[in-house]
């Protein structure tokens, strides 16, 4: 079984990303920390019992990781995109058997690596070149080693309602995820179109679209 775990909002800086989120949801991502393996850092915002929004940026104080950073952060295309402002660039799906799901996925998921942030430990798929799968529409897989981190995040009064996947092969990608174990009632839909993501979050009694 796989499930929507968290959303990746990339930004040039954490401050810029947090301000972007606050302007839309009225809640400020906090906490988080550093990822020594990738030279990145983050802040997080709880969106449910087992889901959250991750604001992610290159850590200017970290040494170069000696490998491409995850989620395409090193690519000229991503850096040009983030010059226009923070953006919802990717999503991560939780699995209970990362080897099985990476092996049977319809796209090459890359290596399974051990990662950490503070006391958190997890295993995650990372393509060799750090690229986003299917323009960010097909998720990265993660398997947590221990409890889910959302349980320790402060209440944000924000709730993830749904995630829309847009891609020229959106229907086929969603069908592949269903085959891997994404439940039919999971809050993930797909449509044909230029590749992009739209998350619908309920905050302060309003349904707000993030993209």
UniProtKB/TrEMBL annotation:
<dbReference type="InterPro" id="IPR025870">
    <property type="entry name" value="Glyoxalase-like_dom"/>
</dbReference>
<protein>
    <submittedName>
        <fullName>VOC family protein</fullName>
    </submittedName>
</protein>
<dbReference type="Pfam" id="PF13468">
    <property type="entry name" value="Glyoxalase_3"/>
</dbReference>
<dbReference type="InterPro" id="IPR029068">
    <property type="entry name" value="Glyas_Bleomycin-R_OHBP_Dase"/>
</dbReference>
<feature type="domain" description="Glyoxalase-like">
    <location>
        <begin position="4"/>
        <end position="180"/>
    </location>
</feature>
